[in-house]
Predict the structure.
Amino acid sequence: MKRIVVTSVGSLALLASLWSGTAASQVAPPPETTVAPTTAAPTTAPPTTDAPTTAAPTTDPAGTAPPTTVAGGTASATTAPPVSIPQVPLPGEQITSGTLTVGATFKDKTGSTCQLSGSLAGQEMNIMLDENGRIGATYGQASIGGGQVGLVMVELGPLPMAVTAFRTTGACNQDVVGIGAYDATAKTAEFKSVGYAVYPNDYLDDVRVSLSVGTSASPATLDLQKAYDFLAAPRPTS
């Protein structure tokens, strides 16, 4: 009922406004009246002469003000403060003896195809075993094959797959991510897939990680600050 009343009032108001506008346009205009013209006698004002005035010179009591100079030039670039990574206890065990091979085959930039391989003795590479006693994750940093490698490789639950990301520098320069086939035991881990290289920006026909562990021991070892600095270092842009 309330809606009906509001609608009715609104409709009436609209009709009233339309009607008033139409009615106003139909009212005849009043008859025109004619006023007799009148002529005023011309008046002449006597001429006036203004006395010439001379502006007094202004004197700066303090002398001539020096010109204002606005500082210009290029603003100095700001440098972000270095990131500090606290050292915390790490999971898993350090690989005390073993070997590692990492590398990728490029689709178009074939000149960047390479790999690093070498011993993990005395390095900061670590493993974690899954619930079945197999290598479920590998992470860390190592100097092998004339270069540096930072690696993270994690199996995807019960699936025979893993996701891998690594950076290599020195004799082989790659920033690689991949997800693909994974096979592991308590002492070995093999990863193979296609992938993508963030550096030097190309698709990858083949990504390989091959790990063989001789011995491992607690605790896991990795200098987190050094690992961060290694991974965060900028690559050439050209």
Summary: The longest helix spans residues 2-26. Strands lie at 93-106, 114-119, 124-129, 135-144, 147-155, 161-170, 174-184, 188-199, 202-217. Confidence is low (pLDDT under 50) at residues 1-43, 51-59.
